[in-house]
Structures are given as C-alpha cells and as structure tokens.
Design goal:
The protein contains 12 helices and no strands. By secondary structure, it is mainly alpha-helical. The protein has a domain of about 110 residues. The radius of gyration is 19 Å and the shape is elongated.
Length: about 240
C-alpha cells in the first residue's frame, strides 16, 4: 500500500512541526529538530500520508478513552486502515507511542484542523472513521462519544454537521433523513434538494481522494453517500404524501 511504505522515515522531508513532528522525531531519534517542530505542516506534505498518520494517532488516543484498549478496536484500526502485515511494525510504533505519551488528543486535533482548513468534508471523514473504530467492540462508550464530539468541535464542525455524521451511520430504515441532509421537516423540497446536492458533491469518493483521503479508507465515504442518497429518497416520498 502506497501510503504505508516508510511512513515514519518518509515524513523527514516535510516541515512537520507541532505534536506530530515531536512524535515522529522521538521515533526517529531526533532527526526532526526542535526548531522545525515549532512550525506547522508544510504545504508540500503528502495529504494521504498525513491523513493516515492522523487516523493512527487519534485512534490510539480513542482506544484508551474509556480506560481500556479492546482487541476489537485494535483489529478495527488494522482492518479499517488496511495496514499490510509487513508495515504493522512501524505503524505499531506510532500507535503505541501516541497511546503511551502524556500529551492528549487536543493538540493533534488542532494540527489536523489547521492542515485541512477549508476542507470540512475531509475532516468529517476523520470523524466518520473514528466512529467506525469506536463501534468495533459493539458499543461506543460515553467517553468515546464525548471525545469524538470534542474533536469535531476542534475541527470546526457545527452540531448539525456532527449529528448528520452520527445519523448517517444508522441503517437506512432507522435514520432520520432530515438530520442526514442537515435540514428540518418544515423546509421546502427545493431547499432540501440544494442540501442534498451539496452533500453529494462534498462526500463524493473522487473528490475526497483528490483532497488526500487514501483509497484504503474511502469505503466509509461510500457508506456516507449511500446514507445521503437514501435520505433524499425518503424525503421525496415523505414530501409527496
């Protein structure tokens, strides 16, 4: 998988500062200097590798949000990110370092928000994937939910956008179509259609790929698209009655 090969060493050439720079620097024996660690992400950073790194670190923080790291959650991280066996060692080093360090998830979330500023759909995809991982053991704990919710706030998502993500993860027969489409039941069909078209464009897999979401994790965006389309079908039927 292209995004995993030499993930740690491959970041040396970037001006990768902040908590991510410090984390990788500690794994590389200080090859990333403290001077560079004060700067932000370089514009030349490879979006897919940054996205992958973001998910590994936030997944590690999430895995201990409720005080325990379940085997199911660890398997979910591997399966969701499609980490090949030959890359597990280096990914495991990042995961364990992030899990064991004293720094919380907030500085990482802020740096991710800065890197993907203006691309709210990509940030929503991070939230969507974190829910997938939290759901792996059959239950999203209150602590995990609160953490994901707080990360969404750091990302700049509003309550309507966050609730749309949560609702979109339900099966089509249980979701509230208006919540998924970030609308209200008394909105007219024309305005809801505008929301539908906007969301369809923002969450189209091809657009997300162009913004740095790796092919390895694009399945969740396809699930979001199915929820959006299902919600629109339901609203049309409801409005026609």
């Amino acid at each position: 998988m292209a995004i995993w090969g030499s993930l740690i060493g491959g970041m040396i050439g970037f001006s990768l500062g902040g908590p991510f720079g410090m984390l990788l620097g500690s794994l590389l024996g200080g090859k990333i200097s403290r001077a560079r660690a004060t700067s932000g992400f370089s514009a030349a950073a490879q979006g897919q590798k940054v996205f992958a790194l973001s998910l590994i670190v936030l997944s590690a923080k999430l895995s201990k949000a409720d005080g325990q790291v379940s085997r199911e959650e660890l398997i979910a991280v591997k399966d969701k990110l499609k980490i090949p066996d030959q890359e597990l060692d280096q990914v495991g080093k990042i995961f364990n370092k992030a899990k064991e360090e004293s720094i919380g998830y907030e500085p990482y979330a802020k740096q991710i928000a800065h890197f993907y500023k203006g691309h709210i759909n990509v940030l929503e995809e991070v939230i969507n994937t974190l829910f997938y991982i939290a759901e792996a053991d059959g239950n999203v704990s209150n602590e995990e939910f609160k953490m994901i919710h707080h990360i969404s706030q750091i990302f700049g998502l509003n309550e309507i956008e966050f609730n749309g993500i949560v609702e979109g993860r339900k099966s089509s027969d249980k979701l509230n179509p208006y919540v998924v489409l970030e609308s209200k039941p008394n909105d007219n069909l024309a305005n809801i259609r505008k929301k539908y078209l906007k969301l369809s464009k923002e969450h189209h897999p091809d657009l997300l790929l162009s913004k740095g979401v790796p092919q390895e994790v694009i399945d969740e965006s396809k699930a979001k698209m199915r929820a959006i389309n299902s919600a629109w079908d339901q609203v049309q039927k409801l409005k026609s009655n």
